[in-house]
Give the backbone structure.
Amino acid sequence: TETRTTGAHGGAIGMHGIKKWFGNFQAVNDVSLEIRSNEFFTLLGPSGCGKTTLLRMIAGFELPTEGQVLLDGTDISRLLPNQRPVNTVFQNYALFPHLTVAENIGFGLKMLGKPKSEIDSVVGDMLKLVHLDGRGNNPVTQLSGGQQQRVALARALAPRPKVLLLDEPLSALDLKLRKSMQVELKRLQTETGITFVFVTHDQEEALTMSDRIAVMSTGTVRQIGSPWDIYDRPSERFVADFIGETNFLEADVVSVSGDKARVRLSSGAEISATYPEGVTPQGKVTIVIRPEHARLGPPGSGVLEGAIHTIVYLGTDNHFHVTIDDGKTFTVRQQNANSAPCGFSVGERISVAINDDVAQILRD
Ligand code: ATP
């Protein structure tokens, strides 16, 4: 498109056996991952899991204690930040308050000694790209928070990096603005073809924008996959629990065939479940079922029997907390599709049915 800002493809990043120690504290413990060219890749995890440290090692602000960072196959581990075709957008976008919008966007190019005509042309493209045409001469301080964040993005994109690193860039914005900036960021990434590496602790943000997500915990990568893989096929309890609400059930493996296993629930009913690569399901296992993948029905109609403990009305849907007959709690989420009362009452005996192909066995 006319706003495409890079002829070159986005860079591919390889991180191989990365370890990072701060004194005697290990922040990153043997991380290896491949980020593909033109990908929107997200590092997702709770505070302190090491995602910012990984990002800073791609940028060159930190050096790995062990391991290599490759860009398009070339080892860049020891290069200074300004020697890497990589740029970073930070949470506190750190614009220069005494400069105009255009001067902020062109700042990096000016530092690189680019001629004025080239700077003007790139800044013009960038203003269009972030939908701030006509605002170039405004002082940045006159812009709203969301507009300032777009200036910060334009400034980082202007030197046409091969990779753009984004460290929680939306967390200072209010919810509504954050949602619209998520869509905007995804569009910018697609239009520029630049590889984006995005850091967040917000699972919904990660699911919304990413081509692939690496879920991290205490310095390690727990699972890498598409949003669907991560949400619908979590390989372990931490990932299932971190990404949204979920039910864990104990079950016994009855048989395995192809990529499916038959498992027996505490009620005696059997269902089919998928399992992670490299796992041979046997004996007692834990399975995951998302609340929206189950539904309520009259006693005897499903695979788990119990009684409704609580009903939470959320506008778009209802959450039913069910006490199943083995004493555990199971949550069912049903869409409020008919704009009518849910038709169930607290204390009522019900049965929980589980949709086909939704149960997932976890790695031990
Ligand atoms: P957050 O979202 O809170 O920034 P994070 O997942 O990005 O979390 P990091 O910032 O990468 O986590 O930090 C990982 C761990 O390393 C934390 O326990 C942090 O305190 C520690 N750490 C990070 N930088 C340093 C440093 N320069 N010196 C000492 N410890 C550090």
About this structure: The pocket of adenosine-5'-triphosphate is lined by residues 22, 25, 27, 45, 47-53, 201 (CB under 6 Å). The two ends are 48 Å apart (CA to CA). The first helix runs from residue 51 to 59.
